[in-house]
Design goal:
By secondary structure, the protein is mainly α. It is 47% helix and 0% strand. The protein has 2 domains: 110 residues, Cytochrome Bc1 Complex, Chain D, domain 2; 98 residues, Cytochrome Bc1 Complex, Chain D, domain 2 (Orthogonal Bundle). It is globular. The protein starts with a helix and ends with a helix.
């Protein structure tokens, strides 16, 4: 019975994932011109002082390989996913705040970074990052968390109605292009922080993740974050 329930949760998780593809970004290829890799590289590495745009590399490292756990690795992320996140850091017209905020509702440090970016800028930077290789992936660091983290990742927690993370992010944590981010090699502290923000509702750009994270305990979050970081 437990196996059947677990399979049902995995299946429902997959259906949930399929229903959450951001149509506005998934359909962008229909009319927009192809992103410019050279312009994306220049803006990422050097910024644009004349427009008040700070170099992304100053926080996220050369070619998207961060050396600071508080700033996520961006190399090899699907460009559609990065583009959506940049949109969600901006404060949209008529809104009081951005969809992505920091702890306790404080503005995210990324909001002032994203606000000066044009649609073309965001597309170019996102495309550039998607072409880069993750040279220095983070690793799992807690052997005592492996069993619990692996259980959540592979099969979910049926008793808490938590689907398997692999149903959306892939068995090896590579994500699904245009839909879900790569988590393999991401800093465990960063993954943990984002799950907590989803749980609190301060990161309000994915209702499904809020619904999942609010059922997770601190132990669940810590274990699966560490496990995801070690995936390859």
């Amino acid at each position: 019975m437990k196996r059947v329930l677990s399979r049902m949760l995995v299946a429902s998780g997959a259906l949930l994932c399929a229903s959450l593809v951001p149509a506005s970004h998934a359909a962008e290829a229909g009319g927009a011109s192809k992103p410019d890799l050279a312009k994306g590289s220049q803006l990422y590495e050097q910024g644009d002082a004349a427009r008040g745009i700070i170099s992304c590399a100053s926080c996220h490292g050369a070619a998207g390989n961060s050396s600071l756990p508080v700033n996520p690795n961006l190399a090899a992320q699907p460009h559609e996913y990065i583009l959506k996140q940049l949109h969600d850091f901006k404060v949209k017209e008529g809104a009081e705040h951005a969809a992505r905020r920091g702890p306790d509702g404080a503005p995210s440090p990324m909001t002032p970074m994203a606000n000066p970016l044009t649609e073309e800028d965001m597309r170019n930077v996102a495309y550039y990052l998607a072409q880069q290789r993750l040279e220095k992936p983070a690793t799992a660091g807690h052997q005592d968390l492996v069993e619990h983290g692996q259980r959540i990742w592979r099969g979910g927690l049926p008793e808490q109605r938590i689907p398997a993370c692999a149903s959306c992010h892939g068995a090896a944590g590579m994500g699904i292009p245009a839909q879900y981010p790569r988590l393999a090699g991401q800093f465990p502290d960063y993954i943990e922080a984002q799950l907590r923000l989803f749980r609190s509702g301060d990161r309000a750009n994915n209702p499904a993740m809020h619904d999942i994270a609010r059922r997770m305990t601190d132990e669940d979050i810590r274990a699966v974050s560490d496990y995801a970081a070690g995936l390859r």
